[in-house]
Amino acid sequence: MLTRFQTTLHAVLSLLATLVMVLSGVALVVLITTFGWLVFGRYALNQTPTWVEQLALLLIVFITFTASAVGVRDRTHLAVDLLFEYVSRPTRRVILTVVHLLLAGFGLLMAVHSTTLMTFAWGTEIPLLGVSEGLRVLPMVIGGILTTAFALGNIVDDWVAQTTVSASAGHDSDAVSLPRSAAAETEDDLPDAVAAVTSPLPSPQAQA
User: Fold this and answer.
1) Do the domain assignments include residue 59?
2) Where is the Tripartite ATP-independent periplasmic transporters DctQ component domain (predicted)?
3) Which residue among 49, 60, 104, 169 is buried most deeply as judged by most CB within 10 Å?
């Protein structure tokens, strides 16, 4: 059976990814609404709301850096996986681990250096909005932290899943329960052993 730590970690990261996507969706709705108000004010009221552009920049930065971190969790970013066709599954797992470690390192560097930049800019105000300039950089800090957390979570998912499949060989299929991210829904992303132990057994009627 999966360890309690891995199961809890998977649930927490999945919930966090869902929350981030909901917030990004709300930010996108606000962005579209404010731009609609910008067009209406400029051409119908002849009074352009000048604050819309600055708010739009804030929202775009938030959506970009947070949603891209969720892409790491769901493994939906563009990737060239030609090499995977010519290596064994254990080798694929090692390659994926290296990739996620690089992503985690990148996210950590982005969070650290963005924090320095945010601290430097916090005392300056954004024109027309009257809020701190550091808010422009805050989504980069959040995105870096999320990228690191999601990349490390994927490593845990991959290796614990492999360990569970190996330990469950020869046992009943009900003993295996593998939480998987959205990008691991295809059978190619799982070892052959997982497909074997998780497939439903034929009914007696079908065998007859």
Assistant:
1) yes
2) 36-159
3) 104
**Residue 189 falls inside a structural domain:** no
Instruction: Give the pair of three-digit tokens for residue 199.
Output: 């497939």
Q: Are 163 and 93 in contact (CB under 8 A)?
A: no
Q: Judge whether residue 207 has pLDDT over 50.
A: no
94 neighbors 84 (Cβ within 8 angstroms):
no
81-85, 94-98, 132-136, 150-154, range with the lowest pLDDT: 81-85
Report if residue 180 sits inside a domain: no
Residue 146 lies in a domain: yes
Q: pTM for the whole thing?
A: 0.75
Q: Look at the chain and report how many structural domains it folds into.
A: 1
Which residue range is the domain that position 130 belongs to?
A: 1-166
Q: For residues 20 and 2, give the distance between their C-alpha atoms in angstroms, rounded to a whole number.
A: 26
Q: Answer whether residue 138 shows pLDDT above 50.
A: yes
